[in-house]
Amino acid sequence: MVDENRVEGSAKNIGGKIKEGFGKLTGDSKTEAEGKADQVEGKVQNTVGGIKDTVKDAFTDRKKA
């Protein structure tokens, strides 16, 4: 099962890309910067979820052994 952080992080990253693109399209540098920040936050959250999945898998494998 995939960690919630990975799903939420991916969604935030995609939302940030859309927001950044909208900011570029409209010439709104604040919205563009917010979109970039959302992407970074999403990537970090996704990474945290990946680490949790790795740790969870390691413990599951140890229990099976």
Beta-strand content bin: under 5%
Count of individual helical segments: 2
Distance between the termini: 20 Å
The number of strands is: 0
Describe the structure.
By secondary structure, the chain is mainly alpha-helical. It has one domain (4-64). It is built from two helices and no strands. Helix 1 packs antiparallel against helix 2 (29-64). The radius of gyration is 16 Å and the shape is rod-shaped. The two termini are 20 Å apart.
Topology:
Layout: H1 4-26, H2 29-64
Helix pairs in contact: 1-2
Compact summary:
The chain is mainly α and about 60 residues long.
Features:
single chain; 65 residues; mainly alpha
